Amino acid sequence: MAKDFHKEAIQHPIFKLIGEAADELGTDAYVIGGFVRDYFLKRGTPKDIDIVAIGSGIELAKKVASKLKGKPEISIFKNFGTAMIKHKDLELEFVGARKESYNRDSRKPMVEDGTLEDDQNRRDFTINAMALALNQSNFGELLDPFDGLADLDRQIIRTPLEPGITYSDDPLRMMRAIRFAAQLHFTIELPSLQAIAENKDRINIVSKERIVDELHKILMSSQPSLGFKLMHQTELLPLILPELTALEGIEEKEGQRHKDNFWHTLEVVDNIAETTDNLWLRWAALLHDIGKAPTKKFHKKIGWTFHAHEFVGAKMVYKLFKRLRMPLNEKMKFVQKMVLMSSRPIILSEDHVTDSAVRRLVFDAGEYVEDLMTLCEADITTKNPKKQKKYKNNFKIVRQKIVEVEERDHIRNFQPPVSGEEIMQTFNLKPSKEIGIIKDAIKEAILEGEIPNEYEAAYDFMLKKGKKMNLKVHSE
Ligand code: ATP
Ligand code: MG
Predict the structure, then answer these.
(1) What is the rounded CA–CA span in Å between residue 214 and residue 176?
(2) Which of 316, 269, 276, 279 is nearest to 295 (CA)?
């Protein structure tokens, strides 16, 4: 076959320099994997670049570092036989070509030195196994033994070797296949899809952190439902996020049906992907209805109910994050808050939208009120155009009112206009529950719009409230 050259892909001077370093060491070097794939996909040039050396990756990295101006940072991972150089905005990862063999109970292979072909054989997908040569003698030559280029063209995810073995060896690849399918809008070829379904249980040898990394990437893709549908189809989903599969299905009793909350959720996630790149808000969209499975009930008079599903759902968020070893920090609390409040704007907008209801919404959602609105707008999946228009319009009114109310009342980071300290002094009180009662009454009066959120009005209100409670004003 005629040799195929793509020098234009490796115009960046770093590639020539790596080639020279390899020539000096008498080894061969290639750029491989994501960089080559993304070049052909015209996805822009990635900043993480994988270099494979036929020999020692660490030696090559050292040589490259010595040739670079400004002494770049080099990290060596002896156990893995890899080295990383950070150079300007690039992350160069060096590894020696290797041959791998696997144990049943671990996704960490035993490795030995190998040829370029051995190394390409161990790669996960044909589109990730393409290499471009960097030595001077064949600079820019494409080495593509599995015809990854054709698979890019056909938009197919396919493994270089037998899929059953590939996925069983390293089950993380199941998640990677699905993630790439979602990111690139590619199809996973049928034998691969079947092999994933057959090996699904092996996902349990993959660390939660790695699974979550892939989930994040699926969620951050332009149409996340593609990934979740594949997880559903291969039955990986119930092993990873059983809370979601529990939402699937429509039940009918006495002629009353509820919607399928699993498929609804996927629509919501796709909707929100169009309006925000906030990963945690996308997580909130994914989890906003999980409380509906355990709270579902049928009442003869009112039909299907999911009473307190937001509250139950918020609690489930904590357990889910914990199980997946996700951070139990303010990100988790944000997701919980979104789930907990996810029905509030809808209830509010079903009625005439009052100022006091909007003030309460802003008070409870605080700085996240816009995120909450974004979530609720994405939650509109009705196919009835009339209803859709009505909901959208109502949310527009809510958003306008949020701005108006905020300009006037500054509720967002609410600070009590009269402090507990001042209440104590005014009525000569020791710390006691009366103070809480008065503070609360002031807050309620402000939210209800009875008084403005200002010191003087609040002070007067406090005096009146104290009088009603038979408190005496302290005179010095
Ligand atoms: P991205 O950086 O966009 O996630 P990538 O393809 O560069 O995509 P990396 O995780 O950076 O993915 O891995 C670099 C390369 O290493 C891949 O292109 C692939 O050739 C190989 N690779 C990564 N993980 C695996 C794996 N689990 N099994 C086999 N090969 C893998
Ligand atoms: Mg990469």
Answers:
(1) 7
(2) 316
Q: Is 123 in the pocket of ligand 1 (CB under 6 A)?
A: yes
Other beta carbons within 10 Å of 367: 10
- Antiparallel, parallel or unpaired: β 98-101 and 110-113: antiparallel
Domain boundaries, the chain: 7-151, 155-240, 420-468
Does the structure show a pLDDT above 80 at 476?
no
Cβ of 109 below 6 Å from ligand 1: no
Q: Give the predicted TM-score (pTM) of the model.
A: 0.92
Residue bearing the CA closest to ligand 1, atom 10: 34
Q: How far apart are the first and last CA of the chain?
A: 102
Strand, helix or coil for residue 296: strand
CA distance linking residue 72 with residue 393, whole number of Å? 55
CATH number for the domain running over 7-151: 3.30.460.10
Which ligand number lies closest to the CA of residue 176?
1
Q: Give the other-Cβ count within 10 Å of 77's Cβ.
A: 13
In contact, 371 and 338? CB cutoff 8 Å: yes
* CATH tag, 155-240: 1.10.110.30
C-alpha dihedral over 149, 152, 157, 159, to 10 degrees? 10
Measured distance CA(366)–CA(413) in Å, rounded: 6
What is the per-residue pLDDT across 133-167, written as a single tens digit (0 to 9) for each?
999 999 999 999 999 999 999 999 999 999 999 99
pLDDT of residue 143: 98
Amino acid (1-letter code) at residue 457: A
Atom of ligand 1 nearest to the CA of 173: 27
pLDDT tens-digit series, residues 6-23: 999 999 999 999 999 999
Residue 103 CA: distances (Å) to CA of 110, 125, 436, 458: 8, 20, 64, 71
- Would you give the DSSP letter of residue 234? T
